[in-house]
Amino acid sequence: MKHYINRIFLDMAVLVNAQGDLLDNIESQVSNAVDHVNSGNTALQKAKSLQKSSRKWMCIAIIILLVVVAIIVVGVLKPWKNKDGA
After folding, report:
1. What pLDDT score does 41 carry?
2. How many whole angstroms separate alpha carbon 60 and alpha carbon 54?
3. Dist CA 61 CA 63 (whole Å)
4. What span, in angstroms and rounded, lies between the C-alpha atoms of 63 and 55?
């Protein structure tokens, strides 16, 4: 009888040890996932900032282009000159 109880406790110890290794592996995987999420969040914040800056510069470029086109159109048409030559 003593032999069976001893064997049960040894089997239990092996199972607890195996579960401990499994829990350590899960903890490691969760820690890695947290690190990846944090780095992804940082990358998203940087991308958001770059997108905002890019949008601002695109608007400035469009405004400059429209001003240049308006200057060219006014220069070619010269609406202030009379067509009769007077």
Report:
1. 97
2. 10
3. 5
4. 12
- pLDDT reported for residue 70: 93
- With 0.70 as the threshold, say if the pTM is over it: no
Task: State the DSSP string of the chain.
Answer: -HHHHHHHHHHHHHHHHHHHHHHHHHHHHHHHHHHHHHHHHHHHHHHHHHHHHHHHHHHHHHHHHHHHHHHHHHHHH-TTS-TT--
Tell me the C-alpha distance between 5 and 17, whole Å.
18
Question: So what's the pLDDT on residue 51?
Answer: 94
Residues of the chain with pLDDT under 70: 82-86
Token representation of residue 24: 């350590």
